């Protein structure tokens, strides 16, 4: 999910501009990563530490690139300053005021949950403008797919740990991703003046393959995502899960799409 911003980074470098790229998701995701990194350090959870360290580094790179290429640099810097102040106040509160132990972990988990929900809602900040202009150019389709899969995976991880601070705030990610899928399906072709299938790198040739019941990429992604989620549900309760099995399954699904 965090690496999907590389597409926006490549676009900014190619055009030397940050037009039609949303800045708020970069900020909220960075805030979310740093919050969960602190939570992982207190809880001594290696998964949270590794994932959110990588995420925070990537989001910092995107923020710096956006501030360099945007025409509204002052506004971007002001928003970044607000984020830094929020982090500073939060660190001071949890390090100095709140006593260490379960209370500290519980309150930090609650705050991080708010950060996660704001991260998932941030791409919809321009929802009214998207509907009014009937254009989804400011939304990232790869980020939408990655958000859907990632939020689902973290929800399952939270269920396994029985940690509601991980499980509950990731549920809005599933909901907002479905909303964005619907926007791409209903407005994508109209805003770009061409079929939505152009968003997909795969070409489907005639043959005895599975037919999409809905137009364009939306239906194919929905079908492939449903299959992936069923696989995750099956593997999440199995002790024999291996990375190689997941890779083989992924390669098989990609080959099915191409054929």
UniProtKB/TrEMBL annotation:
Does the entry feature the keyword Repeat, yes or no? yes
Q: Name one GO cellular component term.
A: plasma membrane
Q: Which UniProt keywords apply?
A: Cell membrane, Golgi apparatus, Membrane, Repeat, Sugar transport, Transmembrane, Transmembrane helix, Transport
Superkingdom field: Eukaryota
Q: Membrane spanning segments where?
A: 21-41, 47-69, 81-99, 105-127, 139-158
User: What's this protein's function?
Assistant: Mediates sugar transport across membranes.
Q: What is this protein called?
A: Sugar transporter SWEET
This protein's species is: Alosa alosa (allis shad)
Organismal lineage: Eukaryota, Metazoa, Chordata, Craniata, Vertebrata
């Amino acid at each position: 999910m965090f690496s999907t911003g590389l597409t926006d980074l490549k676009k900014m470098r190619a055009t030397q501009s940050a037009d039609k790229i949303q800045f708020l998701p970069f900020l909220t995701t960075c805030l979310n990563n740093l919050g969960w990194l602190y939570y992982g350090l207190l809880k001594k959870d290696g998964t949270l530490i590794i994932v959110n360290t990588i995420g925070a580094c990537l989001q910092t790179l995107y923020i710096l690139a956006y501030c360099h290429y945007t025409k509204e640099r002052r506004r971007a810097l002001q928003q970044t300053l607000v984020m830094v102040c929020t982090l500073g106040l939060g660190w001071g509160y949890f390090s100095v005021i709140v006593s260490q132990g379960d209370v500290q972990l519980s309150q930090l988990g609650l705050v991080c949950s708010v950060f996660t929900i704001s991260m998932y809602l941030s791409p919809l900040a321009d929802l009214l403008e998207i509907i009014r202009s009937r254009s989804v150019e400011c939304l990232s389709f790869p980020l939408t797919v990655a958000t859907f899969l990632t939020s689902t995976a973290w929800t399952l991880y939270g269920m396994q740990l029985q940690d509601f601070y991980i499980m509950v705030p990731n549920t809005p990610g599933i909901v907002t991703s479905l909303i964005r899928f619907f926007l791409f399906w209903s407005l994508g072709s109209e805003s770009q003046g061409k079929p939505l299938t152009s968003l997909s790198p795969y070409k489907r040739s005639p043959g005895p393959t599975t037919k999409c019941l809905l137009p364009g990429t939306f239906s194919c992604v929905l079908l492939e995502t449903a299959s992936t989620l069923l696989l995750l549900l099956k593997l999440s309760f199995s002790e024999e899960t291996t990375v190689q099995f997941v890779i083989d399954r992924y390669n098989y699904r990609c080959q099915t799409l191409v054929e």
